[in-house]
């Protein structure tokens, strides 16, 4: 059953067309990898799904669970189960990570008509999820992402994903900036969240992430379109041959 | 429901109307003739049944004021005020100072109820004695000032037992004339500045507090000011004295109806702390700020100054400024006693077309005096927000220390934040530290929060609360929650 359905999507950023007729179907429980050269539009896809304001869909449609995603506000999309792990997580001075997590969780619960989490319940969930990602209490007390190392920021993204339990997670280069050990921690974290009810789109440049998070489908994005789709072996082929073929094709 | 909780609850329940205090109370009033003259000054003094010296004092102020010019150095821009077009005195008609709350005009009581201000002693008392013993000590004695007169003061008896005097200044002039005479104008002299001098001539009411030597005031004291009448200025005068070793915490709150015209508020607050005494003065200023187009709103020109007169005394100002069309306000400390300490914690928020020029002065006169300034300015909409601060050390003030931290947060790109620090050190042992930052709530920050499920308002409130929390923690507990909510309300409509 399709969870995400993108049809002929056209997106411009400040007059400039970036996505030019992108089609993509992600079924429930599947993990799709999107690879492609720098500037091909991978982050643009992630941002337009999340609803960032300067990214304008000029044509096509996107549905999540059959609902028109593009018609929803940013926070509404989040409450419907869309999560974006940022390529460059944002720093928020003065706001303790703990406070941020709690505000986010309760905001989503509120818009779904659920009760706020009690303090002990919240603490229990955070402690468990943080422990699995080797995030210590001290980090949770610090302001969101401020002074975090590259690896800590990425782990913090996965922590949020674990706590918010999305239906569809889009991970934008979550492997960049990670050392080998951190890559293992993060991918284990992601793998634990794989379930028949949850789909993921993993944007990456490197096969090594896909060694850990083994995708069901691999796509190549070039010049704003999906130009090839295959199984996990496609990633290996790309690693060997680069993108030269696809840049030709798209031209 | 306990009154304080109720207050918080009421503040919480507003989401439609940004300024919920904008209603007007229908009540018959008695006014002085419009405009300012010696006769009006005499009228006010006579209404209050004041001693002759007080009338002389006022008249001197009035004559001085005639020779003074309105200051223009602040970064605020407003149409000329016509001082002859203002009523300087308005009192609920047939007003006789009430002996108990039951004698207060029910319309006025309803007004305070609507404002969420706890006036009923019984309710407040009910609020304290929580059976589970949780959150005790939230008793607050209130003095309520409606236009030009004080209409109710609560907990008088209990305070009296502790020896604390807490009453309208007009009453103190009759009951404790010597105390008032000794201290009035001793911190802010009659001719201090244009607005303070005006206040000295026409001030109508305000609170008087005297805490005797060695006494720790058994509860929070607070005054709520309400401007109700049209075309009426409010000129209140507050005088607080903490005698040797005494401690008092005092809070003031203020609101006004929504009106198209501008109204003038020119208050004077004087604090005196004798040896080893401590005064903590908190303000939640929420005068009507004007509408979305910058029409109406209060012109708030206020002189607040504390004198750490005795050695090791301490004065601490905490302010949350969210209202007024124009704010001109510099709560200051004169650190006269050796080893005395001054503190200034400020959150100043401007939205719409509001203009804020606020800050503090720390004047180090005594040896080993210390001061600390934490200022958080938040500008949104088309507002302008200026921090103006002076730290000075005089020749005798060896070992003076100051730490200043002054941060500005911008929301949107049509507002402005400015920092104007003045530093003067006349001796080489003074050590002054100054830190300042300006940051912006960026699109990126909001997007990140919204992607996690928060609305734009929730996201802004989260970031702003993070920004102000260092100051918020200096407010008395009961008011911190209220202030936090007020901050969110005053920033509504600033994003998206
Ligand atoms: N906010 C923006 N303003 C202007 N141009 C933008 C903006 N966002 C993206 N672009 C442009 O759109 C194109 C696609 O960018 P995008 O970030 O989607 O690429 P990407 O595939 O994620 O690249 P990388 O692999 O380097 O992360 C680039 O040419 C980029 O400069
Ligand atoms: Mg990218």
Protein traits:
heterodimer, A: 251 residues, alpha/beta, 6-stranded mixed sheet, 4-stranded antiparallel sheet, 10 helices, B: 496 residues, 11-stranded mixed sheet, 10-stranded mixed sheet, 25% helix, globular, disordered N terminus, binds adenosine-5'-triphosphate, binds magnesium ion
Concise structural overview:
The complex is a heterodimer of chains A (251) and B (496). Chain A is of the alpha/beta class and 251 residues long.
Largest sheet of chain B: 11 strands, mixed
State the helicity of chain A in percent bands: 25-40%
Distance between the termini of chain A: 33 Å
Which regions of chain B are unreliable across 5 or more consecutive residues at pLDDT < 50? Answer: 1-17, 120-138
Weakly predicted, low-confidence segments of chain A:
none
Termini distance of chain B?
36 Å
Number of helices of chain B: 12
Looking at the structure, what is the overall shape of chain B? globular
Secondary-structure-based class of chain B equals alpha/beta
Give the rounded overall mean pLDDT of chain B. Answer: 81
Give the structural class of chain A. Answer: alpha/beta
Small molecules (ligands, ions, cofactors) in the structure = adenosine-5'-triphosphate, magnesium ion
Largest sheet of chain A: 6 strands, mixed
- Give, in order, the helices and strands of chain A: EEEHEEHEEHHHEHEHEHEEHH
Quaternary structure classification: heterodimer
What's the number of extended β-strand segments of chain A?
12
Explain this structure to me?
The complex is a heterodimer of chains A (251) and B (496). Chain A contains 10 helices and 12 strands. Chain A is an alpha/beta fold and 251 residues long. In chain A, 39% of the residues lie in helices and 29% in strands. Chain A has helices at residues 42-50, 74-79, 97-111, 119-132, 137-141, 150-164, 180-192, 207-212, 233-241, 244-250, and strands at residues 2-13, 16-27, 31-35, 55-64, 67-68, 82-85, 92-96, 143-144, 168-172, 199-203, 217-222, 225-230. The model of chain A has no long low-confidence stretch (mean pLDDT 92). By secondary structure, chain B is an alpha/beta fold. Chain B has 12 helices and 23 strands. Chain B has helices at residues 3-12, 38-47, 52-66, 106-114, 121-128, 156-162, 169-175, 177-183, 194-202, 443-451, 456-472, 477-490, and strands spanning 29-31, 90-92, 140-146, 149-153, 165-168, 207-211, 220-226, 237-242, 247-255, 262-265, 268-273, 278-285, 297-308, 314-321, 326-329, 332-335, 341-350, 355-364, 370-379, 384-393, 401-411, 416-425, 431-441. In chain B, the strands form 3 sheets. In chain B, strands 5, 6, 8, 10, 11, 13, 15, 16, 18, 20 and 22 form an 11-stranded mixed β-sheet that branches. In chain B, helix 1 (3-12) packs parallel to helix 12, helix 3 (52-66) runs antiparallel to helix 9 and helix 7 (169-175) packs across helix 8. The longest helix of chain B is centred in the C-terminal third of the chain and has 17 residues, at 456-472. Chain B is globular, with a radius of gyration of 22 Å. Chain B starts with a helix and ends in a 6-residue tail after the last helix. Mean pLDDT of chain B is 81; it is low at 1-17 and 120-138. The chains are: A alpha/beta (251), B alpha/beta (496). The structure holds adenosine-5'-triphosphate and magnesium ion.
